[in-house]
Amino acid sequence: MLSDEVAEYLALQPGGRYLDCTIGSGGHSAAILKRIIPNGKLIGLDQDEEMLSLARERLKNYKKNLELIRGNFSELKKIISEKDGFAGILYDLGLSLFQIRKKERGFSFLVDGPLDMRMNQRQNLTAEQVVNESSEEKLIQILKEYGEEYYAPRIVSAIIRGRKSSPISTTFQLKRIVTSAVPKRKKRIHPATKTFQALRIAVNRELEALEWSLPQAINLLEKKGRILVISFHSLEDRIVKQTFRKFAESKSLKVITRSPLIPTRMERCINPHARSAKLRVAEKL
Ligand SMILES: C[S@@+](CC[C@H](N)C(=O)[O-])C[C@H]1O[C@@H](n2cnc3c(N)ncnc32)[C@H](O)[C@@H]1O
Prior knowledge:
By secondary structure, the protein is α/β, with parallel strands linked by helices. The protein has two domains: 175 residues, Rossmann fold (3-Layer(aba) Sandwich), CATH 3.40.50; 101 residues, DNA polymerase, domain 1. Helix content is 45%, strand content 15%. It has a seven-stranded mixed sheet, sandwiched between helices. Helix 7 crosses helix 8, helix 7 packs across helix 10 and helix 11 packs parallel to helix 12. The relative contact order is 0.14.
């Protein structure tokens, strides 16, 4: 989503207080800060220290208006000590291109790196552990639930065979195993896409984090405050849609976007990674 569009849906007020739960390298936050200075405040959150450093550098001219916090958005209630509510809260879920492209982080099958996939570098659990130590049943469940992978049993059989001879410890090793396990057909996406997505979601407990976080965020909104969520796959979008609906039924929220907004053709050309993005917006009553 374009930052201008995000800023528009946040209905930014000069002097308002905002929370970016996934600051990343600070693209959307820069657009927000520009519009709320000189008296507004933005809190930017990320669980990835490298991303916080990038955001700190990019937004160094807004020091007075910006507070950066390292943490998981699943713990908003604990992290945010402010008593006053927020006029807007933003989630731009998933990973930044910076994380995807950096081979040491092990998120992508396009670059060879350790099978890591942790967004929070202080966390113990890595994708290597999930792949090499989970039972066959558990791995099938992960690939089915988080990757909606039709060939989950075949892929997992190949993983189990592969890890018997030596641990699977790199992205390319895993990519080779997955590619060899599924029938060769012309497909729009790479055969390893869903397996990598599923493992990443499992390692970072992404769906649980979102499920726990949204009610806390809605609680932190002031009256007429807006919550925006940009998601990148149907599992996340379903959680957002259902949570907004539940709070709308209890008259705590008004849903602004009946159906999610998707990127325009032009945006998809500029940034192909944004092609699956969906934006949902709701307002506190
Ligand atoms: C798509 S990027 C955000 C990009 C950002 N909006 C920008 O304009 O640069 C998502 C970011 O959210 C962070 N993130 C994902 N899940 C998180 C969670 N549960 N708690 C905190 N940060 C999270 C990731 O580390 C990543 O930096």
